[in-house]
Amino acid sequence: MKAFRPTSFFSTSLIALLILGSHSITQLKAALPADLQKSITAINAVGLEGKGNVQAGPAWKLLSGADSSAILPLLQAMNGASPMASNWFRSALETIVTREIKSGKALPLNNIGDFLLNNSNGPQGRRLAYELISQADPDTAAKLIPGMLNDPSPQLRRDAVQGLITQAAELKTAKKDSAAGLLYRQALNNARDADQIKKIAKQLKSLGKQVDLPRHFGFLTHWKVIAPFDNTGREGFAAVFPPEKKVKLDTKYPDKNGKEIGWQDLAVSDDYGMLDLNQPFGLLKEVTGYAYTEMKFDSARPAELRIGCKNAWKIWFNGELIFARDEYHRGMEIDQYSLPIQLKKGTNTLLLKLCQNEQTQSWTVEWQAQVRICDSTGTAILASDRLPTPQAKKATRRQLKK
Amino acid sequence: MKSLFPLTALCATLFTATPSAQADWLQFRGPNGNGYIEGAQPPTQLSQKSIAWSAELPGRGLASPIVVGDNVIVTCASGPNQKQLHVYSFDNQSGALRWHRQFRATGRTMTQSKTCVAAPSPASDGKHIYALFSSNDLYCFSLDGDLVWMRSLTLDYPNASNSLGLASSPIIAGDRLIVQIENDSDSFAAGLNLKTGINEWKIARPKAANWTSPVALKSEQQIVVALQSSKGVLGVLPATGSEVWNFSKGASTIPSAAAAGDQLYIPSNGITAIQSSKLTGEDPKKLWNESQQRPGTASPLIVGDKILVINGAGVLTCADRNSGERLWRLRLKGPFSGSPVSPGNNLFIFNEQGVGQCIEIGAKEGKVISEVDLKETILGTAALSGSAIYVRSDSHLWKLAQP
Fold it and tell me: Which residue, A246, A281, B34, B81, has fewest beta-carbon neighbours within 10 Å?
């Protein structure tokens, strides 16, 4: 079901480019006829709620009808394009490629390879460039992948990591545990996708290697927590309890039953950064809790706050409400939500509100979240004052408090 | 006279061979949104020989295929976290690829493991294809695969998602594309302009997970779109989204109601049959309720005067749709995630193991008359058009026709 058959004409120049490395590559500036350039502009103007669709449709038609000279400009157009505009460009480009291949025309593979090997190009466009090369010349594409272990494109990096995982597994099967451990370690250093990291960590542990997964992911592990405030009838989600007005770590408040409560420490030792409010407070229902942490960074930079949570939650970063979601017990996973934030130099603050609802089924016990800070590739951004990962303690299970 | 016969024969051949002569299957559960299509003549003796062609797909999907002229359209999602979204058009006659478009999901792709991102079925007005995914990415194509417009409903409305996955299939009613995006956090239904994808209206819906699809009730007077949820069913005008009537007795959030003209058969306390009000603000008339006819995951099927319901144990019940009175029952080989479809005398359904069953429903008792095992997981609903059955498994699209 491939879009086109592989061809065998791919030249050796891409390999030469690979050998030279991306530093020596001068990115071609592709020129386009004015109408096609206008079409790119029209597609870049698409926005929310269908804005720009009326102009984008005809623009796509024009672009997708172009010849292969439009391929490189379309890849370049994907640089910095919005997710929707990127999809418009990708689709137009693939339509051109399919037609060109069907009619027996050669693709500008050297230009596409040039684009791929220039790391300053955007990850989506570079991945697409790789896929085009992979379809046209799978052998060369396979040779390129090992060099992309530290690639800024998560998708390219993933393939490179997968290659290492496969090699390590073969070594382990051959009882070459030491070599396998090294390769798994290298794979872990470069892996950013949770599923790959879990697989690698499992293998490393089976080889007796210690793995600091919370640090690898950048999970936040040291918290101040306070609970239980009320969430009867799920009204706590909208209610503003004192920590939302101002975090005062030395102040005590009445809880949902009128009992005085204060902030307490919670160190998270879980491999996957699970901040579990059931641990300090018990298996409560219809309650609201807060978790607060501070972290220092040496410089300001854009970042992503990534959270997995199956309770209703709100999150504030440096005092600003970043996102709020009132969904309960529909499932959670690492990086379930990715939220853009701006780190500032010095101390940054994070406040998380976690609401537990009234459901009593066994799968509604969890009152937890996993929070990390990373860059757009999923690479952890560690605070300069990050403490060592806490050691795991034996968990105690409490009865559900009514 | 001598030359007339060959000419007549040629004309007959042309008519039977021209795909446009057959009724298209344009949306989830067919042209009427109730599983029934008039005039189709799919094979009743299903066997491996019935497989006209199959096409490999790069990822899973629960979405039904749709048939629009020469195009058989199907969606799927592939890659890590199902982030690669695909829309395929295959040639109806040969199964050859006509076009393929792929996109990167812009919304959340997390789903429960049984379902997947390609759960909502595409829809067509015969001129364009509308493909929605659980990630809330929505695309409009011409029949030739030209991209006409797209929406990212998650970028538009960031809390409109369900961490278990969405599955409601869009429908076309009047000149609107109706989407129903319902979940615990930010639920809405909207009527989109078919040509531009821009909201013509958008209304808030109950904040609760819901996987049912809208259904159009058509009468001489008007079209009313039935929006089902745990609260019941809201009837709205497709042009404006304004409320016509409200059935507030609650309804299922998985199997969808079936329409027959201005009557609606709702999975509510078993099955509740109602007649759409003609006057705005007037409650719909309850025709009957039968609590024993309790659909499982499969949505009910309406064929003539019969309503057919498959319960969670895989038992098919056939009842008189005018009274709800049970006519017969038959245990099938389940379990089922997809819904039954029918051209009249027979019912077709595929179970989760990939076994397709043809059941005679026109007689006094139901009877399984043939089976075919496609040996792949099938969680979607088949499509019927012309002389063929179209069904998608986890990794293939299949066309079954007379050998």
Answer: A246
CB within 8 Å: A327 and B103 = no
Please give the radius of gyration of chain B, using alpha carbons only, rounded to the nearest integer. Answer: 20
Cα–Cα distances in Å, from B263 out to B7, B258, B279, B320? 45, 8, 15, 14
Nearest-Cα distance to chain B for A275, in Å, is 19
Place of tokens 């990534």: A306
3-state secondary structure of B63: coil
What is the average pLDDT across B244-251? 95
pTM of the model: 0.92
Q: Which two tokens stand for residue B166?
A: 């969405």
> Which chain A residues contact residue B162 at CB under 8 A?
327, 330
Cβ separation A53–B80 shorter than 8 A: no
- Residue of chain B whose alpha carbon sits nearest to that of A196: B80
pLDDT band (50, 70, 90) for residue B282? confident
Q: What is the CATH number of domain B25-401?
A: 2.130.10.10
DSSP, collapsed to helix, strand or coil, labels residue A190 as helix
Tens of pLDDT, residue by residue over A286-344, are 999 999 999 999 999 999 999 999 999 999 999 999 999 999 999 999 999 999 999 99
Report in angstroms the alpha-carbon separations of B73 from A193, B88, B173, B381. 32, 6, 20, 14
Query: Is pLDDT larger for residue A10 or for residue B91?
Result: B91
Q: Which one, of B57, B112, B56, lies nearest residue B79 by Cα?
A: B57
Q: Where are the domains of chain B?
A: 25-401
Residue B278, token pair as written in the block: 């003609």
Compute the distance between CA of residue A102 and CA of residue B152 in angstroms, rounded to an integer: 31
Residue A201: what pLDDT? 97
Res. B221 pLDDT band, cuts 50 70 90: confident
B104 chain-A contacts, CB cut-off 8 A: 83, 86-87, 90, 124
Helix (H, G, I), strand (E, B) or coil at A69: helix
Q: What are the tens digits of pLDDT across the range B306-341?
A: 999 999 999 999 999 999 999 999 999 999 999 999
Residue B14's H or E segment, with its range, is helix B4-17
- A83–B106 CB contact, under 8 Å: yes
Secondary structure class of B393 (helix, strand, coil): coil
pLDDT band at A395 (very low <50, low <70, confident <90, very high): low
Predicted confidence (pLDDT) per residue in B364-396, tens digit = 999 999 999 999 999 999 999 999 999 999 999
Quick one: pLDDT at residue B384?
98
pLDDT tens, residue by residue, A19-63: 333 333 334 456 689 999 999 999 999 999 999 999 999 999 999
| Spatial CA neighbour of A236 closest among A329, A366, A353 | A353
Q: Which helix (H) or strand (E) holds B369?
A: strand B367-373
Min distance A385 CA to chain B CA atoms (Å): 33
Place of tokens 């057959």: B22
Task: Residue A309: list chain B partners with CB under 8 A.
Answer: none
Picking from B58, B80, B185, the nearest residue to A193 by CB comes out as: B80
Residues of B in contact with A53 (CB under 8 A): 148-151, 196-198
Q: Which residues of A touch B (CB under 8 A)?
A: 1, 3, 46, 48-50, 53-54, 56-57, 60-61, 64, 83-84, 86-88, 90-92, 94-95, 98, 124, 155, 158, 193, 195, 310, 323-328, 330-333, 336-337
| Ordered DSSP codes for A35-80 | HHHHHHHHHHT--GGGTTHHHHHHHHHHHHTS-GGGHHHHHHHHTT
Mean pLDDT score, B42-49: 97
CA separation for the pair A101, B135 (Å, rounded): 31
Question: What is the pLDDT averaged over residues B50-65?
Answer: 98
Q: Residue A362 phi/psi, 5° resolution?
A: -60, -30
Contact B136, B197 (CB under 8 A): no
Q: Are strands B367-373 and B355-360 parallel, antiparallel or unpaired?
A: antiparallel
Averaged pLDDT, B169-178: 97
